[in-house]
Backbone:
């Protein structure tokens, strides 16, 4: 579930007749990430889960932190498997600045030597498989002007470099993937499919040429299998898989790419997925990651239940698969299913696994903050939002959620700053403007500024019942002709689909009846 899917609702006041008078109820700042369940009853196991996650996240070293995370309750992943995946994620390989600086300094040979060393280290068992793969995927998958130019310079500086050819092939594949998009074949423009196939053909030529020079560059086989998936070329996929197995029999990541091609949505079957996992099992002693293929095959069943919105059945399939190992894609879907089932603790566990292997995953941080609020873990939720905003300082939903949390914590000046930041980024952000007006009027005692903001919004939308109701609330302390105008306008423009406004209508009529014009 994406963090941008959060619903930001502002309840702009309710009016009641109370004790013979009128009480225009104070606007309550919305809880962006859901109502906190303060009475959430935790078992000792659940309390320990949350404590262990928080404890792990205090560890500064990324690799040690990854190893220290608790597994989800009920999962008994082999330590060797988790150690392998943690090493994949947090072992330094080739950094982007290292690559960029070397190419711009005319020292492409330095990058070739670096990748040669990583290749030799991988086959000697000194470099984790995922780190070797990441040296390519983290640096050569971009297609912006700078990325393309740097790889072009690399090829010019090192015309015989197999590594440079693979990098360029990966960029062509990225162009193909962008052309293909995420729609079904029937919904995709034929011209886009032509662009995809042309880019895939260029990628194949580059990758084949690179593998002729050095067949041990296994990231190239993975890309060839992805190309085969897009082109429905079973022969290409099979040949790439066989070639990868010849040079690296116990590989995991190339097999994982092959698992993708066997998914039913790409023309494969569950039986093919299961068979690949079973056939690969004989290499488990050499590569503990192999068991994750079984996790992928089993968890994939849940995807189709996800499309049908059968969240309970979906969750059951994910649980069956993920017991064999961590798969980020399915943890993402499983956390969403857990949310739908109101299993907030399980959602926290699953989003925490995403953060275990990807601490900068802003979607996971946002989702976990939402679930933590529902568990009453306000301080931890705010900490996650702060982490998110350090990565994406202008994220609108995160800023809104954080501003709400600050309001609830009584940190009104800090909330004002965040709301102003939202408005500076988007002057038409209605939610932020309303929240800031509410903050001025009901927490910071700056009624003139609050009225001015609502006035500006009414000038833009004079038929907005919600705004007139907020105007009434602000005028409560200074009744006069403006109050009558506000009440009459509210009655004229009240939104019948709004329960809050419908509750206010009889009170507004009663107010007019008791305040006749003289």
Residues:
């Amino acid at each position: 579930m994406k963090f941008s899917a959060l619903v930001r609702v502002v309840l702009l006041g309710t009016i009641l007749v109370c004790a013979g008078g009128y009480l225009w109820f104070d606007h309550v700042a919305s809880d962006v990430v859901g109502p906190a369940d303060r009475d959430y009853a935790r078992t000792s196991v659940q309390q320990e889960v949350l404590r262990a996650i928080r404890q792990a996240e205090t560890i500064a070293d990324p690799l040690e932190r990854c190893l220290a995370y608790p597994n989800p309750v009920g999962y008994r992943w082999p330590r060797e498997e988790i150690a392998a995946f943690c090493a994949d994620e947090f072992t330094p390989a080739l950094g982007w600045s290292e690559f960029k600086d070397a190419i711009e300094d005319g020292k492409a040979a330095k990058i070739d030597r670096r990748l040669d060393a990583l290749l030799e280290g991988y086959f000697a068992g000194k470099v984790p498989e995922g780190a070797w793969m990441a040296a390519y995927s983290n640096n050569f998958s971009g297609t912006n002007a700078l990325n393309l130019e740097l790889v072009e310079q690399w090829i010019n500086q090192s015309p015989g470099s197999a590594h440079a050819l693979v990098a360029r092939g990966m960029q062509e594949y990225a162009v193909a993937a962008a052309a293909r998009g995420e729609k079904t074949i029937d919904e995709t423009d034929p011209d886009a499919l032509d662009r995809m196939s042309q880019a895939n053909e260029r990628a194949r030529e580059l990758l084949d040429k690179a593998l002729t020079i050095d067949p041990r560059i296994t990231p190239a086989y993975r890309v060839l299998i992805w190309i085969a998936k897009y082109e429905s070329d079973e022969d290409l996929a099979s040949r790439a898989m066989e070639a990868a197995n010849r040079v690296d029999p116990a590989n995991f990541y190339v097999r994982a790419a092959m698992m993708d091609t066997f998914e039913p949505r790409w023309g494969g079957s569950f039986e093919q997925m299961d068979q690949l996992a079973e056939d690969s099992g004989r290499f488990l002693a050499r590569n503990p990651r192999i068991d994750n293929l079984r996790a992928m095959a089993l968890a994939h069943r849940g995807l189709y239940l996800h499309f049908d919105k059968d969240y309970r059945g979906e969750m059951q399939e994910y649980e069956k698969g993920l017991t064999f190992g961590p798969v980020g894609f399915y943890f993402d879907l499983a956390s969403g299913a857990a949310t739908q089932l109101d299993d907030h603790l399980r959602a926290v566990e699953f989003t925490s696994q995403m953060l275990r292997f990807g601490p900068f995953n802003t979607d996971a941080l946002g989702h976990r903050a939402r679930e933590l609020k529902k568990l009453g873990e306000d301080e931890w939720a705010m900490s996650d939002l702060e982490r998110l905003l350090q990565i994406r300082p202008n994220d609108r939903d995160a800023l809104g959620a954080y501003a709400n949390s600050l309001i609830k914590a009584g940190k009104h000046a800090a909330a004002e700053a965040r709301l102003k930041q939202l408005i500076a980024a988007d002057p038409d952000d209605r939610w932020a403007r309303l929240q800031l007006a509410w903050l001025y009027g009901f927490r910071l005692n700056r009624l003139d500024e609050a009225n001015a903001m609502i006035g500006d919004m009414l000038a833009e939308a004079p038929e907005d019942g919600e705004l007139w109701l907020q105007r009434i609330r602000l005028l409560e302390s200074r009744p006069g002709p403006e109050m009558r105008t506000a009440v009459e306008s509210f009655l004229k423009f009240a939104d019948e689909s709004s329960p809050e406004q419908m509750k206010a209508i009889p009170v507004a009529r009663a107010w007019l009846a008791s305040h006749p014009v003289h």
User: Anything to note?
Assistant: The first strand starts at residue 15 and ends at 18.
